[in-house]
Amino acid sequence: MQNFTPLQSLIGGLLIGVSASAMLLLDGKVAGISGIFAGILRPVRGETLWKGCFLAGLVAGGLLLRLLLPQAFAFGLVRSPAALMAAGLLVGYGTRLGNGCTSGHGVCGVSRLSRRSIAATAVFLATGALTVFVINHLFGGSL
Question: H-type helices in 3-47, by residue range?
Answer without folding.
Answer: 6-27, 33-41
